[in-house]
Design brief:
Elements: E1 12-14, H1 19-31, E2 36-39, E3 56-59, E4 68-70, E5 75-79, H2 84-92, E6 96-97, H3 110-115, H4 123-126, E7 133-139, E8 145-149, H5 161-165, E9 174-181, E10 183-184, E11 188-196, H6 199-210, E12 218-223, H7 225-233, E13 244-252, H8 254-270, E14 275-278, H9 281-297, E15 300-305, H10 308-321, E16 327-332, E17 337-342, H11 350-361, E18 367-372, H12 375-378, H13 390-401
Parallel strand pairs: 1-3, 2-3
Antiparallel strand pairs: 4-5, 5-9, 6-10, 7-8, 7-9, 11-13, 11-14, 12-13, 12-16, 15-17, 15-18, 16-17
């Protein structure tokens, strides 16, 4: 794995295999007045501003150790280097799973996923990673090992610092271990894809599922070229140049699934959908993978979080204002998140494309992060949206936990 980042290459690469080594390395880096950037599987390492300094790459992919699974308590504890895929494979043997999803679970690690609060399609029903972390072990820049929360669902161990560190991108400390609440695996799962030639109808039908008698596991509204690609990945044909596709995953017992499928199919038929299909496991996997692949391969990716109606309106305005047919959007309707993807964007024109997208997003009460972009865009913007007066508090917290500015300097919101 290359540890270069935003055109910068570290002078040293450290690969600790246990907690003591992590602590010793960080203490030495801080004492030397150097900077360190933590790495996991590298799936989200590009999210963040350009580092102001990058001396040491702290590769935690070898820091795995034993996974502590308590099936009866429905909790699990794992070190930073354990991959999400490995964790779910172990949990599945006991009929359990992590409540959240991440992209590329075979490579994404616990530490990196927690530190970046990695998003996933199941946020529509179960929320994000922050909602399921019950405890955390953190190594501060000076090597001090701290703990927050516990290993059981109910605990009263002080402030919930594990929530503060979830999504802090490793700027306050290294997430060396995390404890999660778990959910049972649903007995059955079923994915249905429905596509429309009317944006309004697609939105109304999608929200009827979110606000209906049952909550789908995932509800994604897709527009642009990706809508047709997803329909095709599912083994179907959209038959129109401009489609809006709903990809809906259901979970539950056999009878519950049957009722849910009937509800979804009935809504598709009564609202004049262009087409729909109840997908086999293989076709469902291909359809969801089409979304993940599009995010992985996009040249420009912006994620907006707001009310569902705002994300849907932003998706429409961004698509309408685009002069090229290379812009796609994915709305996670139950969560209120919009991902805007641009493919084959000329680097010299990407700043204009980015500014156009942000201008539409900023018409709504929302936060955003530019998750992927060309280097010339990063050089001119803060990839995180303005946090307002909160920036002063954020800087004080950073100075309290990392006074030497050792960890991920310049990479977080406000270029902290």
């Amino acid at each position: 794995m290359s540890h270069s980042l935003d055109g910068l290459t570290p002078s040293t690469i450290e690969r600790p295999e246990n907690l003591e080594q992590v602590s010793e390395i960080l203490a030495a880096v801080t004492k030397a007045g150097h900077s360190a950037i933590p790495w996991g599987g590298g799936t989200r390492i590009g999210v963040g501003n350009i580092p102001t300094s990058y001396d040491t790459a702290l590769d935690l992919s070898m820091f795995k150790g034993e996974i502590e699974h308590e099936p009866g308590d429905m909790t699990v504890v794992a070190n930073a280097g354990v991959t999400i895929g490995t964790l779910n494979d172990l949990l599945a043997k006991e009929g359990q799973r992590l409540p959240f999803e991440v992209r590329n679970p075979a490579q994404a690690t616990v530490g990196g996923s927690v530190a970046s609060n990695a998003p996933g399609h199941r946020q529509s029903s179960t929320g994000g990673i922050r909602d399921w972390v019950i405890g955390m072990q953190i190594v501060l820049a000076d090597g001090t090992v701290t703990k927050s929360g516990g290993r059981v669902v109910k605990n009263v161990q002080g402030y919930e610092m594990h929530r503060l560190n979830t999504g802090a991108f490793g700027t306050l400390g290294i997430v060396s271990q995390a404890a999660f609440k778990l959910l049972p695996l649903p007995p059955e799962q079923q994915t249905i894809i429905v596509w429309f030639d009317s944006r309004e109808t697609a939105q109304d039908v999608g929200m009827s599922f979110v606000n209906g008698l049952f909550m789908p596991e995932a509800t994604s509204l897709i527009s642009g070229p990706l809508a047709n690609k997803t329909v095709e990945a599912a083994g179907e044909s959209a038959s129109t140049d401009e489609s809006w596709a709903l990809l809906v995953r259901l979970g539950g017992g056999i009878r519950s699934i049957e009722r849910q499928v009937n509800e979804v199919v009935g809504a598709a038929g009564s609202n004049s959908a262009t087409g729909y299909a109840v997908l086999s496991d293989v076709a469902a996997s291909a359809a969801w993978s089409a979304l993940d692949d599009a995010e992985t391969n996009a040249d420009l990716s912006v994620r907006m979080t707001s009310l569902p109606v705002a994300t849907m309106n932003a998706a429409h305005s961004i698509r309408s204002s685009s002069k090229q047919n290379n812009v796609s959007t994915i709305c996670d309707l139950g969560f209120g998140a919009l991902t805007v993807l641009v493919s084959s964007s000329d680097e010299s024109h990407q700043p204009n494309t980015t500014n156009s997208i942000l201008a539409e997003i900023e018409k709504h009460p929302a936060s955003y992060v530019i998750e992927k972009c060309a280097l010339n865009v990063k050089q001119s913007v803060d990839v995180f949206s303005d946090v307002g007066s909160s920036i002063a508090l954020m800087k004080r917290i950073k100075s309290q936990y990392d006074p030497s500015n050792t960890l991920n300097p310049g990479r977080f919101a406000g270029k902290i």
